[in-house]
Amino acid sequence: MNGGDAEQAVIRVVLADDQVLVRAGFRALLAAQPDIEVVGEAADGEQALGLVRERRPDVVLMDIRMPVLDGLAATRGITEDPALADVRVIMLTTFELDEYVFEAIRSGASGFLVKDTEPEELLRAVRAVVGGDALLSPGVTRRLIAEFAARSKAPAPASVLAELTEREREVMALVGMGLSNQEIARRLVVSPLTAKTHVSRTMVKLGARDRAQLVVLAYESGLVRPGWLG
């Protein structure tokens, strides 16, 4: 969707995985969709970073463990480059509770998928991150909470929240607890559009790249604390 062509709303995807068969499977699935185009493949993180800079895709499906440059370093290279601000990264993991989940979210990844995910879920994920949603399943959310609990002796100062209204703080807390816009709307008795607007404004005020970073900020600021999910 990068490029601003209103007549061609095609999601452009780069695949980054050192396993040829994995890339081939993803390519076959994605290329069969009328609204998705695979614009490049990379076998390591360095190739992936070069492809992203050259072709400016909307989404990168990025394996965490790759030779030359791993997926974490490649993701940081993407998310720290202002010219690539519109690129979203979905990390690919073999197991949902991957040891690098925490670091990848901190590096700017928009979410995670296990490699054996159902085809429909992969397609939904690609479309979701382009729409500004994050992919944090309950298992991944619990993993993040556990990591924050283990690594943080005390919450960071809440000054980061100073610009937020009371309602925006409430919405941010619900995002941090893993709720979707629909779930937030039901909890606050507002429309889904209103919930989405609150989330978007909160992201803009805090300079958050996407919902995944809102989750990180919610815990770092102490707005949400480990154990609140039950």
TrEMBL record:
Pfam families, A to Z: GerE, Response_reg
Residues with 4-aspartylphosphate modification: 63
SMART domains: HTH_LUXR, REC
Gene Ontology MF term list: DNA binding
Record carries keyword Metal-binding: no
Protein name per Swiss-Prot or TrEMBL: DNA-binding response regulator
InterPro entries membership: CheY-like_superfamily, NreC/VraR/RcsB-like_REC, Sig_transdc_resp-reg_C-effctor, Sig_transdc_resp-reg_receiver, Tscrpt_reg_LuxR_C, WalR-like
Positions of the Response regulatory domain: 12-130
HTH luxR-type domain location: 157-222
Source taxon at top rank: Bacteria
Parts of the chain that traverse the membrane: none
Swiss-Prot/TrEMBL keywords: DNA-binding, Phosphoprotein, Transcription, Transcription regulation
